[in-house]
């Protein structure tokens, strides 16, 4: 498992003092890299649904600090030019502000439900489907400045890559139906911020490990992976990360490998392959998955692992044995007797 560098998030914390009357505005940025069939939200795609803001203002009143909610899941939407929202709120003199943002905006709690929000952060329950990204940002902003959010992904992104190291002559493989069948369908995240940026403490329950994630196949357009070539799965999908109270997270992964032999060429001169064997694998994927990180589960297929392990025979390594040849014997000539052929005399 190779972890891609996590996306960065940053925030500044300060006590703010400014003239009253200025409207509070918002801006956003998502650090992200994308690929085909990648469900990750980007700064551009976030504009479709927008994001929700929670905000709190703290000010000294009669010698005591008083904190009041300023925004509660306020829908921040893109109007084609800038981020905007409904009834404007305004900066106040001498006050301290704390903001948190969740993307995408979810008005009806279809994907997540915020159970608690305060100056320190947000707690939410999230329902995962593998393709809905979930992002979070926190910031304190000075009056007269737009509140800028740098969002961080709260889930783990996973893809599979298969390499064909099966070196038999005129043989290729096809990888199909890559599935994780016990991902977490729900989880609770306690979201906050520390000196390094966004923090996310996920809690999951074993009973919620029911989500089936279908990564598709790992074959190029030709339909097979040529020798010494690699191919990613059709889809990258999203996991609720391992809970911080657990040491590892183990998932059940299944996939099928077809072994194909060349059987001539087509009219264009390209090789034609026929399937001669099919192997279905069920393996345990064990790893500490962390939020905001993208993982590539990379596997090289060769003659030592193309055949699944036999659970009933722990001593069987299932390694394919190469076809070898030897000369056992050369049978000598047998006397066939006189052929009875008489050649004519020379004239």
Describe the structure.
With 347 residues, the chain is an all-beta fold. 1% of the residues lie in helices and 47% in strands. It contains one helix and 20 strands. A seven-stranded mixed sheet has the order 2-10-9-6-3-4-5. Strands 1, 11, 16, 17 and 20 form a five-stranded mixed sheet that branches. Strands 7-8-13-14 form a four-stranded antiparallel sheet, with no helix packed on it. Strand 18 and strand 19 (271-287) form a beta hairpin. The longest helix has 4 residues, at 46-49. The termini are far apart.
> How many angstroms separate the termini?
89 Å
What is the count of β-strands?
20
Order of helices and strands: EEHEEEEEEEEEEEEEEEEEE
Strand content: over 45%
Give me the secondary-structure category: mainly beta
With helices defined by DSSP (H or I, 4 residues minimum), what is the helix count? Answer: 1
- Order of strands in the sheet with the most strands? 2-10-9-6-3-4-5
In which range does the helix fraction lie? under 10%
Main sheet, how many strands, which sense, barrel? 7 strands, mixed
- Low-confidence segments, ≥5 residues, pLDDT <50? 1-21, 31-35
Q: What is the overall shape?
A: elongated
Radius of gyration: 31 Å
């Amino acid at each position: 498992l190779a972890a891609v560098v996590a996306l960065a998030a940053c925030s500044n914390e300060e006590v703010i003092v400014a003239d009253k009357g200025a409207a509070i505005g918002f801006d956003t940025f998502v650090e992200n890299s994308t690929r085909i069939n990648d469900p990750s939200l980007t700064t551009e795609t976030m504009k479709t649904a927008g994001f929700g803001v929670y905000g709190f203002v703290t000010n000294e009143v009669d010698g005591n600090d008083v904190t009041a909610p300023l925004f509660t899941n306020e829908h921040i939407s893109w109007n084609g030019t800038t981020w905007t929202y409904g009834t404007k709120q305004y900066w106040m003199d001498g006050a301290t502000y704390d903001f948190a943002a969740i993307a995408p905006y979810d008005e009806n709690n279809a994907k997540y439900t915020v159970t608690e929000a305060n100056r320190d952060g947000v707690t939410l329950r999230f329902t995962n489907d593998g393709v809905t990204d979930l992002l979070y940002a926190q910031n304190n902003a000075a009056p007269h400045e737009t509140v800028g959010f740098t969002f961080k992904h709260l889930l783990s992104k996973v893809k599979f890559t298969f390499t064909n190291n099966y070196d038999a002559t005129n043989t290729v493989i096809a990888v199909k139906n890559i599935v994780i069948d016990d991902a977490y369908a729900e989880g609770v995240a306690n979201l906050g911020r520390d000196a390094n940026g966004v923090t996310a403490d996920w809690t999951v329950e074993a009973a919620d490990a029911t989500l089936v994630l279908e990564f598709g196949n790992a074959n190029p357009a030709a339909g097979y992976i040529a020798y010494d070539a690699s191919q990613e799965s059709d889809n990258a999908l999203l996991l609720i990360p391992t809970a911080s109270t657990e040491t590892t997270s183990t998932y059940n992964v299944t996939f099928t490998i077809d072994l194909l032999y060349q059987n001539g060429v087509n009219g264009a001169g390209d090789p034609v392959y026929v399937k001669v064997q099919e192997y279905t694998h069920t393996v345990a994927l064990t790893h500490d998955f962390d939020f905001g990180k993208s993982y590539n589960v990379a596997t090289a297929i060769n003659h030592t692992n193309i055949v699944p392990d036999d659970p009933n025979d722990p001593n069987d390594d299932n390694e394919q044995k190469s076809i070898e040849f030897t000369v056992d014997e050369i049978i000598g000539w047998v006397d066939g007797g006189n052929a009875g052929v008489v050649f004519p005399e020379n004239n």
